[in-house]
Design a protein that fits this description.
CATH topology: Phosphatase 2c, domain 1
Helix content: 25-40%
Radius of gyration: 17 Å
CATH superfamily: PPM-type phosphatase domain
Largest sheet: 6 strands, antiparallel
Low-confidence stretches: none
Strand content: 25-35%
Structural class: alpha+beta
Order of helices and strands: EEEHHEEEEEHHEEHHHE
Distance between the termini: 5 Å
Number of helices: 7
Oligomer: single chain
CATH architecture: 4-Layer Sandwich
Number of domains: 1
Length: 239
């Protein structure tokens, strides 16, 4: 298994509030670990929330006795949520902070995924398939028929999320699992990529790249070329 991660400030922001993590080596009882977090909540809050969430998840998994992927990811994210909430309560400058998180691990031939918010995980084989479901206002509008999916990218409320780490206790998490085939590529990313680059172009860039590193760098370049309106984060894993 190969991995590559990269995060970029983009063209419009003065601070990078995203945080990424990728290990193809064991983390505690997990054989590998992939995470993207996209922070929100002011100049200091978003950066702290995303970094604190990633560090909390890695620390928890590194020492936990649990070895089942979904319960382990669940407990780690709940712990991260409590940590961010408590920190916001104790530090006025961090009040209102929060973050998305999407985390995954590959065990044997299976991919296990947990997500909160609108950072995404895609499976790349011959096609590109979004595995996670966004916890966002526009996704709810699409679900009830008030908005067409092709119009979501331009909707003025496209950045409004309905679930986040650091907001409510307990946090609601979605979980997914699927079987992988040799040659599959897993992509985790923040909305700084998906709001700037169409899915079909993400697929094309990954397929045309000679390595995960080249693919990651080209995805960042494409998002910035298209406006780079937000921080951009990419984590890639090849099975």
């Amino acid at each position: 298994m190969d991995t590559y991660c990269i995060t970029d400030i983009g063209k419009r922001r003065s601070l990078n509030e995203d945080c990424v993590y990728a290990s193809d080596q064991p983390v505690g009882n997990l054989p590998n670990l992939l995470i993207v977090a996209d922070g929100m909540g002011g100049h200091n809050g978003g950066e702290y929330a995303s970094r604190c969430t990633v560090e909390s998840i890695v620390d928890y998994i590194g020492t936990a006795a649990e070895d089942r992927p979904i319960p382990l990811l669940s407990h780690a994210i709940h712990q991260a949520n409590e940590t961010v909430i408590e920190k916001a309560k104790s530090d006025k400058s961090l009040e209102g902070m929060g973050t998305t998180v999407v985390a995954a691990t590959i065990q044997g031939s299976y991919l296990y995924v947990a997500n909160v918010g609108d950072s995404r995980l895609y499976l790349i084989d011959k096609e590109i398939t979004q595995i996670t479901r966004d916890h966002s206002l526009v996704e709810e509008m699409i679900r009830v028929g008030e908005l067409k999916r092709e119009d979501a990218r331009r909707h003025p409320d496209r950045n409004v999320i309905t679930r986040a780490i650091g907001v409510n206790e307990p946090v609601r998490i979605d979980f997914f699992d699927m079987k992988l085939e040799k040659g599959d590529i897993v992509l985790l990313c923040s909305d700084g990529l998906t709001n700037m680059v169409e899915d079909r172009d993400i697929l094309r860039i990954i397929k045309q790249s000679a390595s995960l590193k080249e693919a990651g760098k080209r995805l960042i370049t494409e998002a910035n070329k298209n406006g780079g309106k937000d921080n951009i984060s990419v984590v890639l894993a090849g099975y």
